[in-house]
Design a protein that fits this description.
mainly alpha, 10 helices, 2 strands, about 70% helix, about 5% strand
Length: about 200
């Protein structure tokens, strides 16, 4: 079976494969060290994505960036556009404005997005932990002592009363019932235990 020939070209009788180090060196020489069209297109796409991600950034992380008014106005306009073609053109414009930002500002944007992503992950873990404690407190008396050992400032009488009420209201539904939407609606005590646990965990 014959091998597929490499794509490339000849320079002074020598074959230069596309994408090889020599090819890249020759391209740099031809453009005077300037980035190629492919590199420019890749950078433009990345800046558009970075600009679009600013739409998801929380206000407390967005405001300190001190972005130019022209860019913030363009982002506000982008939020309003639902038409596909109109949104595509506006996104290109946002990418163009992003190109004018210095690298320090772009790095600040990336850092803010990363901080938000990390915060969201921590919040999700905290919610799951609070749910686990709530279910264990309702299911076991031992869990109450374990909780009090870790959070001695808890209002014990209030928590005991909520646990008793939650147990009267019914047992914790299994995961399959919840997934199928067959689980009964939980009582107020069930929800209040979660809130109490969540508030105490925030003070850790």
């Amino acid at each position: 079976m014959s091998r597929k020939p490499k794509r490339g070209y000849y320079v002074k009788g020598h074959f230069v494969a596309e994408g090889s180090e020599l090819d890249l060196e020759l391209q740099a020489e031809r453009t005077g060290g300037e980035p190629s069209k492919t590199e420019l297109k890749k950078e433009s796409t990345e800046l558009q994505k970075l600009g679009e991600s600013l739409l998801t950034l929380r206000k407390d992380l967005f405001d300190p960036l001190g972005l130019p008014d022209q860019l913030t106005d363009a982002l506000d306009e982008l939020r309003k556009i639902t038409n596909f073609e109109g949104r595509r053109r506006q996104l290109q414009y946002v990418g163009k404005l992003m190109r004018h930002l210095d690298e320090d500002t772009r790095e600040s944007i990336r850092a803010a997005l990363q901080e938000q992503q990390g915060g969201s992950a921590r919040e999700t873990l905290a919610l799951h932990e609070a749910e686990r404690w709530r279910d264990e407190l309702i299911a076991s008396d031992d869990a109450l002592q374990a909780w009090l050992d870790k959070h001695p400032e808890t209002d014990v009488q209030q928590l005991r009363a909520l646990i008793r009420q939650a147990r009267k209201d019914g047992s914790t539904p299994d995961a399959d019932a919840v997934a199928k939407g067959l689980a009964p609606r939980r009582g107020r005590a069930y929800r209040e235990i979660f809130q109490l646990v969540r508030e105490q965990m925030k003070d850790e």
